[in-house]
Write a structure and sequence with these properties.
- α2 packs parallel to α3.
- β1, α2 and β2 form a beta-alpha-beta unit.
- The strands form 5 sheets. A 4-stranded parallel β-sheet has the order 1-2-4-9, with helices on both faces. Strands 3-12 form a two-stranded parallel ribbon.
- Helix content is 32%, strand content 19%.
- The chain has one domain: Rossmann fold (3-Layer(aba) Sandwich).
- It has 7 helices and 12 strands.
- The two termini are 30 Å apart.
- Pathway: Bacterial outer membrane biogenesis; LPS O-antigen biosynthesis.
- Belongs to the NAD(P)-dependent epimerase/dehydratase family.
- This is dTDP-6-deoxy-L-talose 4-dehydrogenase (NAD+).
- It holds the Pfam family Epimerase.
Length: 241
C-alpha cells in the first residue's frame, strides 16, 4: 500500500469558504498550514489588504472548531533588516507587507490562545531550495541557464549570508516537530549556519557537474533583507537537529 492510499484529499478554497473544510472532514488532531497566495511578491500590499484578513478569519474558525494543535509556516522576513544571528525570541521588526502580515497573524494566534487554549508551533522558515521551488528562484534560474547552455549567468555580488535548507530537510523538521507538541511557540526552521549566496551557487554547480561563467554584481542587493543574517534553531536542536 502506498502513502497515497492512506491519504484523503479534500479540495476547497480556505479563503473563500473555510466552513466547507469542517463540513467535509472530522476535526483533525493537528492542522498544518503552509498556504499563502501571491508569493514571492513580498512587497505586494495584497499581503495585508487580502491575505491577512483571510488568514485570521480562517484561524478564528479553526480555533472555534476546537482545534487542539496548529502548525503554521512563518517567515524570516518577520525579523526585518536585523543583522547577524537571530534568536527565536528576538524582537520582530518587519519591513515588508508580507513580513508584517505574517507577524500579525502570529501575534493574533497568540492572543487567541488566551481565550481558547491550543498548541501553536510557528515554524519560521528561512531559505529553502529543491524540487518544486519557484521558477523565479535563484537555483531554478541557474538550472535554466545551464539547460539552455548559456555562456554566462547574471547574479548579485553573492557575498550575502543566508540560512539555507534543502526542502527535504525542511519537511523532516516539520515531521519531527509535529510529533512533539511540547516544543511550541516560535521555532526557527533553519540550519543555523550562514552560507553565502555565491557558495550556494558554487555547491549547486559542483553537485550537478555544471559549468558556467558567473557574472557577479549584475544585480544589486535586495533592499528588504539585511546583508547577513541567519537563524539560531535552539528548539530544533533539542530535537536532535
Amino acid at each position: 500500500m502506498s502513502w497515497s492510499d492512506k491519504v484523503k484529499f479534500v479540495s476547497c478554497d480556505l479563503y473563500i469558504d473555510p466552513e466547507s473544510l469542517a463540513a467535509r472532514m472530522d476535526r483533525p488532531d493537528v492542522f498544518v498550514h503552509l498556504a499563502w497566495p501571491g508569493l514571492p511578491d513580498y512587497r505586494g500590499l495584497f499581503n495585508l489588504t487580502h491575505n491577512l484578513g483571510a488568514e485570521i478569519a480562517l484561524f478564528q474558525r479553526l480555533v472555534e472548531w476546537g482545534l487542539p494543535h496548529l502548525v503554521v509556516a512563518g517567515t524570516c522576513l518577520e525579523y526585518g533588516l536585523q543583522f547577524g544571528p537571530l534568536a527565536e525570541d528576538a524582537e520582530t521588526r518587519p519591513t515588508t507587507p508580507y513580513g508584517l502580515a505574517k507577524d500579525t497573524v502570529r501575534k493574533t494566534l497568540q492572543l487567541m490562545q488566551k481565550t481558547q487554549p491550543f498548541t501553536l508551533q510557528w515554524m519560521r522558515l528561512f531559505y529553502m531550495y529543491g524540487p518544486g521551488q519557484s521558477e523565479r528562484s535563484l537555483l531554478s534560474q541557474l538550472d535554466k541557464a545551464l539547460a539552455e547552455k548559456r555562456p554566462s549567468f547574471d547574479m548579485s555580488p553573492g557575498d550575502q549570508l543566508r540560512d539555507y535548507l534543502p526542502i527535504e530537510e525542511v519537511a523532516e523538521r516539520f515531521a519531527r516537530v509535529i510529533m512533539r507538541p511540547d516544543v511550541s511557540g516560535v521555532i526557527n526552521c533553519c540550519s543555523g549556519r550562514p552560507t553565502s549566496v555565491f557558495d550556494l551557487v558554487d555547491r549547486h554547480l559542483r553537485a550537478n557537474s555544471g559549468s558556467i561563467r558567473l557574472n557577479r554584481g549584475v544585480y544589486g542587493y535586495p533592499d528588504y533583507e539585511a546583508l547577513a543574517f541567519w537563524g539560531i534553531p535552539d528548539k530544533l536542536r533539542t530535537l536532535g537537529f
